[in-house]
């Protein structure tokens, strides 16, 4: 199924369940027994948890599959971190730029976008100081959410940056009068700053739609932090504890939406034999793909793929990068299929024109290799059912020109054509009916 399906959600109501068990109970003369009522209660609680994860209009999870209104969801999308601040810049007609990008994306069948729901930096900050927000910038985010809904594009919204760009965790640490960036994960004052931001964003009432973000089905999921890393020698424990705490906090506010961490996918101590797939030095980032994603409140896993920057000494023409990409994606699909047992989404991948040997043909070759793996996993019922490339832009100049930008110009050999073909393949994909899994 593609994400545009808006059929009414089909599920057993609680009253139907009660009636069903009443009839079964009568036939087995169990109705007046305590064990029967305990069994009934557990059944209802379990099914309630499943229905919460699959409320009408909200994307949910069934085992390793994304679901919407009881059917599978396949994703083809793009990153556009710039949308909130661009929409807030009304003086330069930024909202027109956002609308153009969403319209172009929709034209080639894309159905999900990943954006920033934060900015603590110097240019058009959303959060100026702890708890102090720019209403104009928030209205920019309101517009993005509203406009994405008009074009049937779901949003993954990240809540803070690991890096200094747009403020990030370093700014939170500075606000608390501290120096060490890793204290973002451990200091009680800093953690409360972050929680306050989470609550502010999730409970924000959109000035255009009148709907709170936490109640808006346009939002696909929340992301705790873009590409978390930790330099401490015990970083895997530090991040694990932080993710547990913050994931629980997000879910205490918003039970409608899915939640992911924002991981790049680096393996850690929980599965040391998998670290051979990491690019050099990644084992020192303090993340652990397996254990981090096994936290119950985390709904799906993510990976990023940047062969040029991760393997700068290997030319894409030697085949070493191609081999790395195949092994990297394959290992994570296997682990999500059999160990984590949750969906996998490739939330960043790209090729930069700033690296030697770049060409549109080379980028298209890379995109196609990623898209083919996604499609093969999806058609066989595997855990990887979508990809989100970095990044979509409409303007070749300015801050958006980071080398990875993709433009939606049409033509026989363009990346836009390749993206459109992937959208069509996923839209036409037919898979067996879903088998209902209990919530994890």
UniProtKB/TrEMBL annotation:
InterPro entries: GH, Glyco_hydro_5, MAN-like. Residues 58-391 form the Glycoside hydrolase family domain. It is found in: Secreted. The chain crosses the membrane at residues 28-45. GO terms for cellular component: extracellular region. Its EC number is 3.2.1.78. It catalyses: Random hydrolysis of (1->4)-beta-D-mannosidic linkages in mannans, galactomannans and glucomannans. Coiled coil: none annotated. This is mannan endo-1,4-beta-mannosidase.
């Amino acid at each position: 199924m593609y994400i545009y399906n808006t059929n009414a959600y089909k599920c057993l109501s609680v009253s139907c369940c009660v009636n069903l068990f009443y009839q079964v109970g009568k036939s087995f003369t169990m109705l007046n027994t305590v064990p029967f009522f305990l069994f009934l209660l557990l059944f209802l609680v379990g099914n309630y948890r499943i229905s919460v994860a699959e409320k009408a209009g909200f994307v949910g999870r069934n085992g390793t599959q994304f679901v919407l209104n009881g059917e599978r969801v396949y994703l083809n999308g793009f990153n556009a971190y710039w949308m909130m601040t661009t929409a807030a810049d009304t003086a330069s007609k930024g909202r027109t730029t956002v609308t153009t990008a969403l319209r172009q994306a929709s034209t080639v069948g894309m159905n999900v976008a990943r954006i920033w729901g934060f900015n603590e930096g110097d240019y058009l900050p959303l959060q100026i100081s702890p708890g102090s927000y720019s209403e104009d910038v928030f209205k920019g985010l309101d517009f993005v959410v509203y406009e994405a809904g008009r074009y049937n594009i779901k949003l993954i919204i990240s809540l803070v940056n690991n890096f200094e760009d747009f403020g990030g965790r370093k700014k939170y640490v500075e606000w608390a009068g501290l120096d060490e960036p890793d204290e973002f994960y451990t200091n009680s004052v800093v953690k409360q700053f972050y929680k306050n931001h989470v609550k502010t964003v999730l409970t924000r009432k959109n000035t255009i739609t009148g709907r709170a973000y936490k109640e808006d089905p346009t939002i696909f999921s929340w992301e705790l932090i873009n590409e978390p890393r930790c330099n401490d020698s015990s970083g895997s424990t530090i991040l694990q504890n932080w993710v547990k705490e913050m994931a629980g906090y997000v879910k205490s506010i918003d039970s409608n939406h899915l939640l992911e961490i924002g991981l790049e996918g680096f393996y850690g101590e929980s599965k040391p034999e998998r670290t051979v797939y990491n690019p050099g030095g990644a084992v020192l980032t303090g993340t652990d793909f397996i254990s981090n994603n096994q936290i119950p409140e985390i709904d799906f896993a993510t990976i990023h793929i940047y062969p040029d920057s991760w393997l700068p000494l290997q030319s894409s023409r030697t085949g070493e990068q191609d081999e790395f990409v195949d092994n990297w994606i394959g290992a994570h699909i296997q682990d999500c299929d059999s160990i984590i047992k949750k969906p996998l989404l490739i939330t960043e991948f790209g090729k930069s024109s700033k690296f030697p040997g770049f060409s549109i043909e080379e980028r298209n070759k890379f995109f196609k290799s990623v898209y083919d793996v996604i499609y093969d996993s999806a058609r066989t019922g595997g855990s990887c059912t979508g990809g989100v490339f970095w990044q979509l832009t409409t303007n070749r100049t300015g801050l958006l020109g980071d080398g990875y930008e993709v433009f939606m110009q049409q033509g026989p050999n363009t990346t836009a054509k390749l993206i459109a073909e992937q959208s069509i393949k996923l839209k036409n994909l037919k898979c067996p009916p879903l088998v209902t899994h209990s919530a994890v």
